[in-house]
Amino acid sequence: MKNNFVIYVVCFIVGILFFTILPNICGCNVTEGQQEATSGKATGTSFISYNFSNNGNDTTKNENLVIKVDNMNPQTIKLDSNINTVNTAMETINSKIGGAYASVNNKNNLVITSDTTGENSKIKIETGTGTNAKKLFGDVIYEPGRDGVISNNNNDEDFFETLGGQVVIMFLFLFLFLIMIGSVVYIFK
Which of 2, 9, 59, 181 is 20 to 30 A distant from 138 in Cα terms? Predict the structure, then answer.
């Protein structure tokens, strides 16, 4: 009788161990759906036009727009033309920036987006940017990039393999659970 007690205690402990480590070793941690990797971006909240050229009369109204793309050194974009529309601002930035691009969102504000994706993808408007250059964006909302998550169930074949694996694991858990219940009943009998 004492040997049976030891066997049941060992089965109970093994059952608990399997319960906690089996999902990690079988690779059944499936992420539902798929999340695409995203790019870092800086989104403006307003737009105020400015004539950085003073109609070509002098360069005193020229300003710099300093942008850091990802982990590269900041880029200095010289603004020296009449930026009277958000589209003109977008075209000016796109003609002078590297590793990123400017666009206009549905609220008619500037957005600068990194060409890269993932957690290292970032855009930052740096110090050294002129006062009126900042007004092209207003307050800026910074959004870093995210890494993508790929699901194991992208197609039917993977889905059924995963489903089959989950069914096997479910039956193993049920079996181990019954052994644990039996062990507890036997111990306290």
Answer: 59
